[in-house]
Backbone:
C-alpha cells in the first residue's frame, strides 16, 4: 500500500505521522520505505539524526521531492510491503504527483474549527486526482488534540460523512512526539506502552481496515 500524508499547510504533522506510521509497520516486521517528498527534507534529517544516535535502522528513507513521484513510488513499492510518503508543503506539482501515486491520502489537521480543515487548493487537487484515480481514498486525521479530546471526537463524528471523512482515532498533543523528532527516534522507543504508542497502534489498525 502507498499512503501519502498531504496538506499544503506546514506544521500540521505530516512528517511526525509519516515517521510513526512507517515505524509502527516496521516494528511489526513489515518492509517499509518512507519517501521524503518535502524539499526541506525533515524526514531525511530525522533519519540522519537516528543513525548518528546509533539507533537501529527501522525503515529506509528516500528523498524524492520531484514530480516524477507518481512513477517512482510504485517502483519502490514493488520491493516492500508499504510505502509512506511524507508530503511537501505548497508545491502543487509535487502534490499532484503524490496524489497520483497514493492508494490512501491522509490529511493531518488540527482539531480547532478555526484552523480550516484543508486549503481549498488541496481539496481541488484531490478531486482532480480522482478523475484519474476514482479508487483513491482520502481521510482527515486529527492531530495535536488537546486535553479536550472529547470535543475532537465529536468533531470527528460530525465530519464522518464529509468528503473526505475523518478518522475516528485521533492523535494527542504530546511532548513525546517533539522529543522523538529531535532525537531521531519514535514515540514507542521512548515509552513503549505510553499513550502515544497506543494511539499510533490504534490509528494503524483503522488505516489497515480502510485500505487492506
Ligand atoms: P509538517 O510535516 O506537516 O510540517 P511536522 O510533523 O513537522 O509537520 O510537525 C510540526 C511540529 O509540530 C514539529 O515540531 C513536531 O514535532 C510538532 N508536532 C507534530 N505533531 C505533534 C503532536 N501530536 N504533539 C506534539 N507536537 C507535535
Ligand atoms: Mg514535514
Residues:
Amino acid at each position: 500500500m502507498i499512503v501519502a500524508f498531504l496538506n499544503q499547510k506546514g506544521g500540521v504533522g505530516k512528517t511526525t505521522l509519516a515517521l510513526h506510521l512507517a515505524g509502527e509497520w516496521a516494528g511489526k516486521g513489515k518492509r517499509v520505505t518512507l519517501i521524503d517528498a518535502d524539499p526541506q527534507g525533515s524526514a531525511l534529517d530525522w533519519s540522519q539524526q537516528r543513525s548518528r544516535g546509533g539507533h537501529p535502522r527501522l525503515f529506509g528513507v528516500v528523498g524524492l521531492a520531484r514530480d516524477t513521484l507518481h512513477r517512482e513510488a510504485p517502483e519502490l513499492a514493488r520491493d516492500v510491503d508499504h510505502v509512506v510518503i511524507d508530503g511537501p508543503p505548497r508545491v502543487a506539482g509535487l502534490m499532484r504527483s503524490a496524489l497520483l501515486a497514493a492508494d490512501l491520502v491522509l490529511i493531518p489537521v488540527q482539531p480547532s474549527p478555526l484552523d480550516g480543515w484543508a486549503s481549498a487548493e488541496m481539496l481541488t487537487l484531490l478531486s482532480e486526482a480522482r478523475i484519474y484515480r476514482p479508487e483513491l481514498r482520502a481521510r482527515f486525521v486529527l492531530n495535536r488534540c488537546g486535553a479536550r479530546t472529547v470535543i475532537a471526537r465529536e468533531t470527528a463524528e460530525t465530519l464522518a460523512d464529509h468528503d473526505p471523512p475523518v478518522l475516528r482515532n485521533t492523535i494527542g498533543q504530546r511532548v513525546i512526539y517533539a522529543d522523538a523528532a529531535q532525537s531521531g527516534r519514535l514515540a514507542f522507543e521512548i515509552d513503549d506502552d505510553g499513550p502515544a504508542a497506543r494511539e499510533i497502534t490504534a490509528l494503524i489498525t483503522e488505516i489497515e481496515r480502510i485500505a487492506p
